[in-house]
Design goal:
five-stranded antiparallel β-sheet, 21% helix, six-stranded antiparallel β-sheet, 33% strand, 258 residues
Length: 258
């Protein structure tokens, strides 16, 4: 925890002595499941021989839906609930202001008090995520304020800033949809535009200028013996030896002429 004083600064030796013998704080996130639920836990330890009164201030972002009916304040060695001396909550408003919890409690001598509250992480809008959305977001550190027993100096402790992981959508889907829609629009619009703007002109086949690939194909086919541009003229075949002329057959079948 980071230590600061309300009146001046301590030297390095005095600061080390305060960190060893005074109140300490530790904040972390306890995951309830693999989903977006969890608990914000703060441990406040009193190393003095006498109870000490502390002021605990915690700010929670609005995108964490906090359940105040699950707020617990327990002395860890005996697992006994502790009633705070005063308790004040300023509720959050989405995208406007965070939660603000202000708690005054008395920590017994040589004991640790656990403060915990459950929350659900919300799914944000796509433009509200940072570039490294999968890295998570940091919760503001808790502030513990107390008066030192010997010098009566007001000391303020800042706990860690834990990282909470928010549910994140698949950010590649907008690009996939954009590419698919653009492709469909290009195909449909291109075809319609081509049909409505081009003029259809009838030309002879001999006037059509052939491309290099088509000329090469025709050259290969011509070398084989049947070029593409040649037209097969179909002639009427004369009856063969085994065929009978239909007119002659009709004439022989007529009884009057016979």
């Amino acid at each position: 925890a980071v230590v600061s004083t309300q009146s001046g600064h301590y030297g390095r030796g005095r600061l080390a002595e305060i960190e060893r013998s005074s109140v300490t704080g530790h904040t972390y996130i306890s995951r309830i499941s693999s989903g977006s639920s969890g608990s914000l836990v703060t441990l406040i330890t009193n190393s003095y021989d006498t109870p000490i009164k502390v002021l605990y201030l915690q700010m929670i972002p609005w995108y964490l839906r906090v359940y105040f009916h699950n707020l617990h304040l327990v002395e860890m060695s005996s697992e006994v609930a502790i009633a705070p001396d005063s308790f004040h909550v300023d509720l959050a408003k989405d995208r406007v202001k965070p939660y603000l919890i202000e708690l005054v409690l008395t920590v017994p001598a040589h004991s640790t008090v656990r403060f915990s509250i459950q929350f659900d992480a919300l799914l944000l809008r796509w433009n509200e995520y940072p570039p490294d959305a999968h890295h998570g977001r940091q919760i503001p550190s808790g502030v513990i304020t107390f008066r030192e027993e010997q010098t009566q100096q007001v000391i303020r402790l800042f706990t860690e800033s834990p990282v909470v992981y928010l549910p994140t959508p698949d950010f590649s889907m907008p690009f996939n949809v954009l590419c698919l829609v653009s492709t469909v629009i290009a195909i449909v619009y291109g075809s319609i535009f081509s049909l409505t703007t081009k003029r259809l002109v009838c030309v002879k086949e001999t006037e059509v200028r052939q491309g290099l690939l088509l000329q090469l194909i025709n050259a290969v086919r011509g070398a084989i013996g049947r070029p593409r541009d040649t037209v097969d003229h179909v002639t009427k075949a004369s009856p063969g030896k085994g065929e009978i002329d239909q007119n002659k057959t009709l004439e022989t079948d007529d009884p009057k002429k016979s």
